[in-house]
Amino acid sequence: MKHQLKTQVTCFLNTFGEMEQRSMFGGTGFFYQDAMFALLTDKRFYLRGGGIVTEALVEKGCKKLFT
Asked: For residues 1 and 13, is the Cβ–Cβ distance under 8 A?
């Protein structure tokens, strides 16, 4: 994983409060209150949606991994 990208993503996500990072699936999983909400790999950033969050992300041009 590009160290600079990981640093930038981590700094951005930390603006929303403290979270935990764990090595997951060859990348870094980001957790809040023991729930993983994002995964950063060398090539992609996956963000967990659900409900209106999914709708908003799709409207912004994000692609759903699972339907």
From this structure: no
Looking up tokens 């209150």 gives 33
Inform me whether the pLDDT recorded for 2 exceeds 90. no
Q: Kindly state whether residue 45 falls inside one of the protein's structural domains.
A: yes
Confidence grade of residue 50 (pLDDT, cut at 50, 70, 90): confident
Q: How many domains does the chain have?
A: 1
The answer to whether the beta carbons of residues 32 and 19 sit under 8 Å apart is: yes
C-beta of residue 24 within 8 angstroms of C-beta of residue 39: yes
Place of tokens 């090539």: 43
Determine the pLDDT at residue 5.
Answer: 87
